[in-house]
Amino acid sequence: MRGVVTIAGEGTRMLPWTRGLRKEFLPLYDRTESGEHVLKPVAHVVLESLVAAGVDDVTLVVGAKDLAFVQNYFTIDRELVQRHARHAERLAETERFYDTLRGLRLRFAVQPAPRGFGDAVAHAEEYVGEGPFVLHAGDAVLLEPERGRMIRTMMALQERDHLDVVLLVRKVADPRRYGVVEGRLDGREGGLQKLLVTGMEEKPPKPRSQWAATAVYAFGHRIFDSLRSLDGTGPTGEIELTDAIRPLIPEGRVAALVLSPKAGEWRSVGSPEGFQRALERTRRRALATPKNAA
Questions:
Q1: Is residue 294 included in any domain, yes or no?
Q2: When you count CB atoms within 10 A of the terminal residue's CB, does the N or C end of the chain come out lower?
């Protein structure tokens, strides 16, 4: 299974940090296999979530100026391991991450200029090929009792029902800041409510529902055809992924799963407040006993 992770965009809400450092490399807490807590970049956690879901071919979409930095982080550094050979315990989690990288086909696609989330996804097409794939923004994480379960459920639904898009949505108090999804209940999938999506709008001033899209999706290849039809002539000059999804909705081939508090939570680091909440939430999870970690 193939996956795409976006590590692009300018991150203006996190300035001045993002003038020189990517928000996708802000630290979050995690737990090692031995039960110790460690800090990992957000994009590191995202990659591990995809691998836990069964993804073995990942394309990282990166801005041109950040390519060398991102490649360096996601490349096995044998000299680092050799330099710290006397303190192997300090490298245990790094070595485990390197084992993950050895099992992956990892590619890097460059987005020459920050022209929107949809444009970043479009640059992955040549690496994704004709089959389905899962997309995950690199600046947010899914926290769930079993890492990767939600993504596996989304991918299985997309493939079984030959859907163009499967979204993951959550109920929010103020949907005006998100891509808002309209839909009607259509049974359950993997313990989650399923929606047949009937509409979607990016940051509407008067939202028609409280279902906000998270930035993780299961796609069929038709999303690229839809992205090619967009020219970025809107008010922002950016190519929005929502605009590519909307034309696929009338065919009845777009579904959504509703993220429940019991199944997991979505945490973004796209703003200072979001990062603070994500850091504190992952810290509580990492320091909790395994029984209460969720």
A1: no
A2: C
